[in-house]
Design brief:
The relative contact order is 0.18. The protein is of the alpha+beta class. The protein has helices spanning 4-12, 19-31, 126-137, 147-150, and strands spanning 37-38, 52-53, 56-58, 63-70, 72-73, 76-77, 82-83, 88-89, 103-105, 152-158.
Length: 160
């Protein structure tokens, strides 16, 4: 599995990078979109056969109205429900929030809001959807990464 140090070395074509420089160089490469993220399943593949995915760097310096709503919370769909008679509310619901600071967005392979979604479901289940992101990014993240907290709908307005 690729590690940040290996990714930075490959992107910079330099084997003599100090460990203390890795994190800052990795962040700057992401911001500049100078890294090809290789799917976990394609780590051993070379050349044109490898499958890469890109990120979108979103900064509050050139964007506003950022809003993120996670799809699942505590293993359940993250939907709000309130019973007016009993004042009972969904206990596990996590409200939308505006990510502060810089964000890196990674998109799904299949479009969830295309008119084609009416003809064929883009994903058969949330588990299949989440697995796509694991197949792409698991090697780049810690073992205890909370996938459900970071998979959801993100909206923002970007200035040209």
């Amino acid at each position: 599995m690729p590690q940040k140090k290996d990714i930075v070395k490959r992107a910079c074509q330099d084997d003599d990078i100090e460990d203390s420089e890795i994190e800052e160089m990795f962040e700057s490469l992401i911001e500049a979109n100078d890294i090809e993220f290789i799917r976990n399943s394609d780590v051993s593949v070379t050349g044109r056969e490898k499958c890469v995915f890109e990120n979108v760097y979103v900064s509050p310096d050139n964007c506003e109205g950022m809003d993120f709503h996670q799809y699942y919370s505590n293993g359940k769909p993250n939907v709000y429900f309130a019973n007016a008679e009993t004042d009972e509310k969904t206990p596990d619901y996590v409200d939308s929030y505006s990510p502060y600071g810089e964000s890196y967005m990674f998109f799904s392979d299949r479009d969830l809001d295309s008119p084609l979604a009416f003809e064929r479901r883009p994903y058969n289940s949330y588990e299949e959807f989440r697995q796509e992101f694991k197949d792409k990014m698991e090697a780049y993240l810690p073992d205890d990464f909370d996938w459900d907290a970071y998979i959801g709908r993100f909206r923002y307005a970007c200035f040209a």
